[in-house]
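Field reference: sequence -> structure
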Amino acid sequence: MKKTLRFMAVPTLALAAIALSGSPAMAADQSYQSTLGQLNGSAGSGTISVDVTGNQAHVVLKVSGMPATFMDAPYPHVQHIHGGAQGVCPAPSADKDGDEVISTTEGAPFYGGIVTTLSTSGDTSPAAGLDLKVGGQGAAYTVDRTFELNAETKAALEAGTAVVVVHGLDPATLSAAGQAAKSDLAPTLPLAATSPALCGTLKAGQMAMPVGGADTGVTQETGTDTGALAVGGGLALVALAGGAYVVRRRTAGAAA
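Structure field:
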């Protein structure tokens, strides 16, 4: 049965204050956008907008066509803004070990290290980069939230070197060597779990009005119910996530 799950984030106090005052919403200082391209044979697609007002960033990331399940649970897709490198997505030649998969490490010379974790709630620091419980879940989801922009991310945006990467591949689509390999970031996981699937450079565009209301978070669509991760191999995901999923179930026809 298809359900829509709502992952709640901290309310956006700035937008609430605007609503209470009755004054018009302020335009963003600068807006950045990207249409995400496919890596490593991914079938997914995605778009992202980042509206920066002062030191606040309002991000809307929409992803679809991604692998839906992993170890009999909704697939946790981690995603980040990377920076400090060339500001481009890697070409197939980035695969240096010959397994026909560009790992996160192999892609780093092109898109750089994590400067912001595009988590569905809570911590957006690089340290939260592998926190699966706040990653996007399943085949299609939208992350819509506002958070304080750190100096590294702001510098990458202004320099044109900020790159969005969404991770998590379908293992069945990889080569035999790729399927057998372990993650370069978390050896308890297969290579597919943390390798890049979508990638796009954030480019400055037209200034945009803030989008969304004071209640920010993520709307999640999956084809299965959320449940405990599988026993055995699934325990690695539980340990890496560091906690259980916190959700509120809503019917598929309900408003987001």
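Note: The longest strand covers residues 30-38.
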